[in-house]
Amino acid sequence: MRAFTRPGRSPTEGPLWLRTGLIALALGYVGLMLLLPLSTVFLEAFREGLAPYLEALKEPDTVRAIRLTLLVATISVPLNLVMGLVMAWAVTKHDFRLKSWLITFIDLPFSVSPVVSGLIYVLVFGAQGWIGPWLEARGIQIIFAVPGIVLATVFVTFPFVVRQIVPLMDAQGRAAEEAAVSLGASGWQTFWHVTLPDIKWALLYGVLLCNARAMGEFGAVSVVSGHIRGETNTMPLHIEVLYDDYNFVGAFAVASLLAGLAILTLVVKSLLEWWHGDEIKAKGH
Amino acid sequence: MRRNILKFIGYSLLAGATLPVSASPAAAAPAQLLNVSYDPTRELYTAINGAFAKQWKAQSGQDITIRQSHGGSGKQARSVIDGLQADVVTLALGYDIDAIAKRGLIKPGWQAELPHNSTPYYSTIVFLVRKGNPKGIKDWDDLARPGVSVITPNPKTSGGARWNFLAAWGYGQKTYGSGTKAFEFVSKILKNVPVLDSGARGATTTFVQRGQGDVLIAWENEALLATQKLGAGKFEIVTPSLSILAEPPVAVVDANVDKHGTRAAATAYLKYLYTPQAQEIIAQNYYRPRDAAIATKYARLFKNIPLLSVDRHFGGWNKAQATFFNDGGLFDQAFEAAKR
Fold first, then answer.
1. Do B205 and A243 touch (CB under 8 A)?
2. Optimal mutation site among A120, A225, A237, A246, interface B, most CBs of chain B within 10 A
3. DSSP H helical segments within A12-145, as ranges?
4. Quick check: B23 and A146 in contact, CB under 8 A?
5. How many angstroms separate the CA of residue A148 from the nearest CA in chain B?
6. Do B8 and A129 count as a contact with CB atoms less than 8 A apart?
7. Angle between helices A60-93 and A99-106 (to 10 degrees)
């Protein structure tokens, strides 16, 4: 690369026209591909004014969809928070035989298509599935009901927390904890006073991402939902229903809530990075 | 702080543990039915459900809520087979209900339970084109012309799409004289199809809202809804010289109503569809009513055209499904031929 650069200029810096051109292209691309579609969501939602927008959000099936989404997130996010900590703890602070396997499998939900993630639950818990008939005989409904939606959401949001904290905990090493334990701290005290303070911002960041995905997941949830209006439609599914009902204000009103959540996540994320950038970035995401 | 977090986690786990219990069916005082239907019946059943709930309350004193689920007919049947707790199914064609019956969830002979082969309304297949009919589409032949973009859903998941395909095939066979010619004809049409949506409503949205395609092969009720309600003045209906009698049947899902204790309400719900009151709602939602008086009243909406019958011209749905739509069937072959 050095051969191409003239003396007196940083090797990564090109001529002025190239610099401005690239920056303009990058900004234009972000504007065209991200900001424009996002702003249409709000534009369409408020097309007929504030009153119809609020009216659309008060519609009973919409309220139920919002409630269901919140319920699913309140179950799956804490679950993945706790299990994420457990798994991160296991792979960074302990050595065991199947460790490399565990690390590989943690990433599985990222590489599997969400539709497949949904289908595996239908194959296991569906009426024609492995344990579906057994469950049905006991009156337990998993698929096409809330438990199935929670399971599918837990599956797709599985890696978010653990992926955020593993690099940090790895970098931390075990010395501080070993010292704490040798000074008589209990396991819980060690975790609370030694491990957690170092990872808390990354952990919070992971929870935010996990929550955004839990509320926004469409594919996997669509497969296991059964699309019962006012019962098993989460917000993303309800948006599709409203759109196909030609209820565009309603569809975009709900979409604006999800988009608002995404923006809030971004803002909090930026603030976190601003305040605690070193800790979060310690070893890349 | 710590206690709060623990409490929160505890409550969440508790909520998770109690869910399966609360999700199991309870035969409480207010009744609830789940109607699993195909894609375009959203508005129809929203209207029907409200009217039926009132009538049921007056008749039995019981409050009733009817929940709806919509999607491609084949996909919906699959969901019921996989355990979706439908009390009644109102699908796009008999074969999809037969598929549920084959798994033992519906008693054999279901189609004889209610009048008119258990089809309280019927429809046919027409074309929806853009205002002024810029591509000059008049009949099925125009859909096979190069340069015409045709929107139709996927027959694997959509019932409407299967009616579309059979109507096109029937026209091809009648006009060009043989099955081989009909095959060539539908292959030419499929060559003009840029995207196969999974349900009829998805295809309508693609055509109406996203502005794709020159012609939508659609249920007459979808086409009428689009011209009368959605984009009045933006679309026109073209009625082909020959179409198909599309009968979407209804049935009680025996295994599920017995489990939920909802047989009486479910049966009453389906019978209600045949009452003059419901037949009027049916016509207002652009489905062809069975009731003669109502049919006369709304005759201006529904054109009288020659209609093929699946039973008479295609040997019934079981045979038609096996010949055309099962894996490796004539649809798959024609779709492959169209890609070449």
1. yes
2. A246
3. 16-30, 36-45, 50-58, 60-93, 99-106, 108-111, 114-125, 132-137
4. yes
5. 10
6. no
7. 160
**Which of B86, B44, B87, B12 lies closest to B265 in space, CA to CA?**
B87
B69 touches chain A (CB under 8 A): yes
Cα distance between residue B222 and residue B126, in whole Å:
9
Find all residues with CB under 8 Å of A36, minimum gap 6, and list them: none
Please provide the DSSP assignment of B212-270 as one string: --SEEEEEHHHHHHIIIIISTTTEEEE--SSEE-B---EEE-HHHHHHHT-HHHHHHHH
Question: Residue B301 has which token pair?
Answer: 């909406």
Going by C-alpha positions, the residue among B145, B187, B148 that lies closest to residue B165 is B187
| Model pTM score | 0.84
B70 in reach of chain A (CB within 8 A)? yes
CB atoms within 10 A of CB B88: 23
Q: Does A150 touch chain B (CB under 8 A)?
A: yes
Question: Rounded CA gap, B93 and B76, in Å?
Answer: 12
Identify the CA nearest to B204 among candidates B189, B186, B220. B220
- Please return the burial class of B281, using the count of CB atoms within 10 Å of its CB with bins 0-12, 13-18 and 19+: buried
Among the partner-chain residues A75, A140, A231, the one whose CB lies closest to the CB of B67 is: A231
Asked casually if ipTM beats, i.e. exceeds, 0.90, the reply is no
Is B16 within 8 Å of chain A by CB? yes
A139 touches B at CB < 8 Å: yes
Written as tens digits, the pLDDT of chain B (340 aa) is: 444 544 444 444 444 444 444 433 434 479 999 999 999 999 999 999 999 999 999 999 999 999 999 998 999 999 999 999 999 999 999 999 999 999 999 999 999 999 999 999 999 999 999 999 999 999 999 999 999 999 999 999 899 999 999 999 999 999 999 999 999 999 999 999 998 998 899 999 999 988 999 999 999 999 999 998 777 789 999 999 999 999 999 999 999 999 999 999 999 999 999 999 999 999 999 999 999 999 999 999 999 999 999 999 999 999 999 999 999 999 999 999 988 7
